[in-house]
């Protein structure tokens, strides 16, 4: 797997557009999924995918082939998601009433994903409950839990992606799991 | 074992990070502590539920790849030599130096279009505008060099006559014992300068 990516990055670096398109094909769904779970919004998830690949493209010449490509791209994407979550927090206070329109608050501005095809097709109520629980996690646990359970990364890989020691990742997985257990326990 | 330690071991178990002894210790504690047994069951169920979630659903829209490929900039031709420059800094420096030298040489060459005469014996030379005349019956001892002008020779030159960016007129009465050289273009001029340096060095 890594060899394929190393070859593709080398070709892309030499100006082979087709090779870069193949990298996009290999990773766009994974990154989209990560963005969607982190941000709970399709539109923002697509933005993250686009921005991630743009950054990958621009820094291809700085990619170290001894490093895993997947770790590298996950790091870029995760950082973009965390940045967006942080900005969201800083920009709006959701509970504040808006000045110009009465009765509207910040919540009404967040594009609701409740009526997207996905939720219409969501037959399993259980899964929806789990997704809601993940969404309610604080950002620092959310990223770790998504990488662990939805992207199947090992603790070591998550530590490489986030640039934190494995022990920190372990603690976060434990806390995140406990948080989810408490959330899910009364509902199931 | 304390329940707090047991909880930590439970998580390690779910992370697949327990030694055989720790596993046995945990098992013994769970058998004796109904509260922890309950907690463990819930944790394990949470873990399994998380793993059961689909991994690539929803997928990104189909035209996303196309959109991404449209937003990335084309790798420019320029990039090739920028990269080359990064790889060969010494060659780049040398090339820049050469270019600067060439420009300054051309500049110097273009700048002086004033009449210049070199020679050991210039007393009898007549200058008329940008024409250098060696009148009939006069004798110039040694070499004579004229830059940016015409040379009209009626008398004797006991040496070489060199004309740079100009022309030579030799009358029937003229006598030049050395060579007559006429240099017109920049390259010839540079070559002339270089060979001059060498011949000077040799004669010294």
What does this structure look like?
Chain B: Belongs to the zinc-associated anti-sigma factor (ZAS) superfamily. Anti-sigma-W factor family. Chain B: Pfam families: zf-HC2. Chain B: This is Anti-sigma-W factor RsiW. The complex is a heterodimer of chains A (188) and B (204). With 188 residues, chain A is an all-alpha fold. Chain A has two domains: 1-93 and 107-113, Rna Polymerase Sigma Factor, Chain: A (Orthogonal Bundle), CATH 1.10.1740.10; 122-188, Winged helix-like DNA-binding domain superfamily/Winged helix DNA-binding domain (Arc Repressor Mutant, subunit A), CATH 1.10.10.10. Helices cover 69% and strands 0% of the residues of chain A. Chain A has helices spanning 2-13, 17-39, 42-58, 69-91, 117-121, 125-135, 139-150, 155-162, 166-184. Chain A is globular and about 55 Å long. The termini of chain A are far apart. Residues 98-103 of chain A have low confidence and may be disordered. Chain B has 204 residues and is α/β, with parallel strands linked by helices. Among the domains of chain B are: 3-52, no CATH class; 116-203, no CATH class. Chain B is built from seven helices and eleven strands. Chain B has helices at residues 3-14, 20-32, 34-52, 64-71, 77-87, 89-111, 186-203, and strands spanning 116-119, 126-128, 131-134, 139-141, 144-147, 150-153, 156-158, 161-164, 167-170, 175-176, 180-183. In chain B, strands 1-5-8-11 form a four-stranded mixed beta sheet, covered by helices on one side. Chain B is rod-shaped and about 135 Å long. In chain B, 13% of the residues are buried. The mean pLDDT of chain B is 82. The chains are: A mainly alpha (188), B alpha/beta (204). Chain A binds chain B through residues 15, 17, 20-21, 24-25, 28-30, 32-33, 36, 42, 45-46, 49-50, 53-54, 57, 61, 117-118, 126-127, 130-131, 145, 148-152, 155, 170, 173-174, 177-178, 180-181, 184-185, 188, and chain B through 8, 11, 14-15, 17, 39, 42-43, 45-47, 49-51, 53, 55-61, 64-65, 67-69, 71-75, 79, 83.
